[in-house]
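Throughout this review, each integer encodes one residue's backbone shape. One record appears below.

===
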Amino acid sequence: MTTIVLVIHLLLALGLVGVVLAQRSESGLGSLGGGGGGGGGGGMGGLSGNRSAANLLTRTTAILAACFFATSIALAVLSGSNTPRAIVEETPAAQTGTADTPSAPAMPAGPVVPQSQ
């Protein structure tokens, strides 16, 4: 189940990136951000013709983003369904029961000389 949701999540992420990159920038930088002269796409006819495409891309972005968030939450819930383990439970001291008794570090038997090859 997790694999299916993860594949859907990745496809949504790729689709979301594609739809966002397909949108035209409206940053107000004049002709730097838009396509065409005048900073708007070639006059009023260009603006009204691109309005429906912009609305479609905006709606598509919103739908893909909502689905992306839903799959993110689903993946978080699915990953939390495994048996929870605390970090303390994973340490060897907690498993052996010697957490309160410190031990001295082991000393090497003799000097260690690296071998040359």
Notes: Residues 44-80 form the longest helix (37 residues). Residues 1-24+53-79 form one domain. The chain has a mean pLDDT of 75.
